[in-house]
Amino acid sequence: MPTTNKPLDVIVIGGGVNGVGIALDAAGRGLNVLLCESHDLASATSSSSSKLIHGGLRYLEQYEFCLVKKALAERELLLNNAPHIMWPLRFRLPHQPHLRPSWMLRIGLFLYDNLAKRQRLAGSNSINFSANSPLVSELTQGFEYSDGWVDDARLVVLCAMAAKQQGADIKPRTRCIKARRQQDLWQVTLQDTQTGAISHYQTRVLVNAAGPWASSIFNDVIAMPAPKALRLVKGSHIVVPRLHDEPHAYILQNSDQRIVFVIPYEGEFSLIGTTDIDYVGDPALVAIDEQEQTYLCQVANEHFKKKISAHDIVWSYSGVRPLIEEHASAQPQQESSQQAQHVTRDYTFHLDTKDGAPLLSVFGGKLTTYRLLAEAGVNAISPFFSHIKHPWTQTAILPGGHFRDHQHLQSELCQDYPWLPQHMVARFVRSYGTLCHHFLYGAHQLTDLGIDFGGGLYQKEVDYLVQAEWAYHSEDILWRRSKLGLVLNDEQQQQLQHYLTQRRS
Ligand SMILES: Cc1cc2nc3c(=O)[nH]c(=O)nc-3n(C[C@H](O)[C@H](O)[C@H](O)COP(=O)(O)OP(=O)(O)OC[C@H]3O[C@@H](n4cnc5c(N)ncnc54)[C@H](O)[C@@H]3O)c2cc1C
Hints:
Elements: E1 8-13, H1 17-28, E2 33-36, E3 52-53, H2 65-81, E4 86-94, H3 102-114, E5 125-128, E6 141-150, H4 152-165, E7 169-171, E8 174-182, E9 185-192, E10 198-208, H5 216-222, E11 230-241, E12 249-253, E13 259-265, E14 269-273, E15 277-278, H6 290-303, E16 315-324, E17 347-352, E18 359-364, H7 370-381, H8 406-416, H9 422-432, H10 437-440, E19 452-454, E20 457-458, H11 459-469, H12 474-481, H13 490-504
Parallel strand pairs: 1-2, 1-10, 2-7, 4-12, 10-18
Antiparallel strand pairs: 3-6, 4-6, 5-6, 8-9, 9-10, 11-14, 11-15, 11-16, 12-13, 13-14, 17-18, 19-20
The structure holds flavin-adenine dinucleotide.
The site of flavin-adenine dinucleotide has 39 residues, from helix 1, strand 8, helix 5 and strand 16.
């Protein structure tokens, strides 16, 4: 039963984007940080998003100007700090007069262009869709505007790596099972979810960044009443063979006033989502249902020439948005008349210091605002540390992101490793940036990369992911460190799992 005697400064519960963001910010400000995550990093909401770095055009309708402004300002900053896993994405918005009127869309887009300073992202404009457009012939006019794309799960892993570089102890597959205040310290019990081993720590500050579990942590781990209710809202996405060959994403306005994105995905596919359905139950068990599949196919079919049905779905995923229930007591899942899509996407903190050692709880949030949230969270606990440094993450480049642009890095890799197939070079640039040298360096031909698992995945990359990026199970590699699960067949996936199991023994 190992116990560390020297108290830590901060223990963060939760290895989603908000938890790793806080761990990174705090470690870089000189605090002694440990982060625990029950499963793999990004195994919950932070790998189940629409993967957009965006202000959220539709939130303007809900008068969420502050949220949209801060998210818009953050877009360009994030694009600079992680150029490998994030890039600008142009959106097309077909206009249908019976839905939102065009004057409203123009005002919305004007605000979207101007609420925050833009340097890299182009502004909006109107467009006409020609007969060659992938859209049905009734859709002839619309608008274009810019937002950003992010590989959400890799963002989490890269933040965790950066936090480790700053000295944080990152512990995936480690559940926080108990935390109790004893005067100025928290006594925290962690359990290794693979071996069952228990360890005990002391910390000055406890951070609850458990996403959809942020409320239940109070009952199950801390034994205190939750200060805020979370409304759990399920959002699902489907992946189908690509609906069009253009680089643009489409934002579709459905007749129920909901928005559905159709986004180019992993070269061969389109990502279509999302739904917004109240969810009751264990967030870990969330899954798409038949109704959602039908809904997403139907919205796509109403807009695109190429028709799809549930049979075309090659993959789907669902996540639970932990949204702050306004005007509600701390009774999760209670009945609410507010439509799920209208509940705020902004975050709030709850800092509890009244009985001794501080507890900071994070409620809500968006991928796009994770860095701001982390900075604000660490600012909130900074009065408890005399030695804490100033905020620093605004211009901090995430691991692998020190390069000029995708094209430049791609040419460099082609020069350094001329034997690498183009599809692998392209994937390495957008997943690893310069980190790929860690597993490519010293190789002179493909066979130097070891076992071929298929789809361009070789042993050297797998070994790197295990050693440097905390990969453990095949799904950590196939669905979070990459999306090669879309490419490898069952036999290849089993071979990878077999290799990982053997490697550990
Ligand atoms: C469908 C959908 C689409 C979205 N699209 C976008 C988008 O396009 N752009 C955008 O900006 N935002 C988007 N979001 C929002 C964004 O994904 C979330 O705000 C964000 O991922 C929440 O991160 P988190 O760290 O709070 O939670 P999570 O990622 O869920 O992380 C919480 C972690 O805590 C862990 N945990 C729980 N209990 C314990 C315990 N006892 N011990 C240890 N670990 C524990 C869990 O295993 C989990 O991994 C979307 C969300 C959804 C659901």
